[in-house]
Hints:
Layout: H1 3-15, E1 21-24, E2 41-45, E3 50-52, E4 57-61, E5 64-67, E6 72-78, H2 80-85, E7 88-90, E8 93-95, E9 104-109, E10 117-119, E11 122-124, E12 136-138, E13 142-144, E14 149-157
Parallel strand pairs: 11-13
Antiparallel strand pairs: 1-5, 2-14, 3-13, 4-9, 6-8, 6-14, 7-9, 10-12
Amino acid sequence: MNGQQAQQIEKEAQNMPLEIGFKRLSDNAILPTKAHVTDSGFDLFAAQDVIIAPGETVVVPTDIAVQLPQGYEAQVRPRSGITSKTKLRVQLGTIDESYRGNIGIIVDNINPKTGRETIGYHSLVISDAIVRANRLVKYGTYRIEKGTKIAQLVVQPIPATVAVEITGELAETDRGVNGWGSSGV
């Protein structure tokens, strides 16, 4: 093989998609998917119904485990539709390459605790239908139904790093020690 052939093989290898292994941990699990091949994240789905009252934080299970390639991490990130249309906030989560457990999605309900009650829930379901219950719940409570897309999983390469102590001065920069708000509002 000549140098030109080797370069072509290398270019083709760089265009090959990276395979991410997913394992269902229960019959409730839905394999992560991408709506479009160019999407950066895989959609993650709730594996069970979850109720989140105002001010509560809940870890929503996906019943999915991931096998990442060596040198990669995954991040659980919010979906913009949920953040813009509800008072639910998916928190960023990091999945290390060696983790093989259930991917959980940390969700906060930022509705204020008012003490008021209502019949039924704010409902976060695929059809956007409002689900009614025959009991009183705290006003601003959400019900996430099993099978609902609630977050995304983005896979990124991670460089090998190691911490070292610097005993002398840090290298100078234009910014220096100026922190929050130093570059403008």
